[in-house]
Amino acid sequence: MTASPEPAPSDHPSPAEPAPAPRTGEPRLLVSLATYNEAGNLANLIAEIQKVVPHADVLVIDDNSPDGTGQIAAAIAEKDPRVHVLHRPGKLGLGTATLAAMKFAMTQGYDYLLNMDADFSHPPRYLPGILAGMSKYDVMIGSRYVRGGGTENWPLPRRVISQTVNMIVRFLFRMPVKDASGAFRCYRVSMLRDAELNRVRSRGYSFQQEVLFRCHKTGAKLGEYPILFENRRAGVSKVNKKEAVRSMSMLLYIGLRNVFGLEQRRK
């Protein structure tokens, strides 16, 4: 299925098709991949996901990639009913892409939404372990910072910055997790319905921490499963220093509001 383009950054897909019937014996699982210039990775990644979790559907959210990623996704979707594509008019950001995937999962009646990076930095081999944790938790995080987890070929400054940000977030947001910034996560969709996602302000790197915070404020049980974060197999990293500074400012703003009791859940 190929969804039509979003007219504006704040819009979400509104699929016209009815939700498929649940598969017997398995929770309905949607794996979301936000893409921008991932032509060298996408087909192989979808194939590996389907090999590990063949019952999963895959949603590709492409921001009009100049390298033709959206066309590759559409060609795959034409042949495979398990693959869906949302074409967006431009580079609208990971935060809005993830919110669009959450909206899609809710409207289409999925049980779990599992988000991954599209560059193979989140290896599909960890999917069974993360999904197994959903028997006890509402959000399972593919975690770099619990025992058994780690990063591959990261320079020391990047590791220090990442772990420092996570320590600050853990203190200010009062969340019992060690890796609040990773995007490799599985969400219970019924919990997302109550998570006040309309309050999420972040759109850049701080999105992952804030959306986890909104889930935590809902009372969601948060779990972590160790992963090795690997370097991308193809393409170029999209890390933006200006956005990193802006996101850190947003985290401090929300965190301090939380410390002073200004981020209470609305009744």
**Helix content range:** 25-40%
Count of separate structural domains: 1
**Per DSSP, what share of the residues sits in E-state strands of 2 or more residues?**
15-25%
Could you name the CATH homologous superfamily? Spore Coat Polysaccharide Biosynthesis Protein SpsA, Chain A
Unreliable stretches (pLDDT < 50, length at least 5) are 4-22
SSE order, one letter for each helix or strand: EEHEHEHEHEEHEHHEEH
Question: What is the CATH class name?
Answer: Alpha Beta
Mean pLDDT: 89
Structural class: alpha/beta
Shape: globular
Strands in their spatial order, largest beta sheet: 1-4-3-2-5-8-6-9
Largest sheet: 8 strands, mixed
Q: Which tags fit this structure?
A:
Spore Coat Polysaccharide Biosynthesis Protein SpsA, Chain A; two-stranded parallel ribbon; 8-stranded mixed sheet; 267 residues
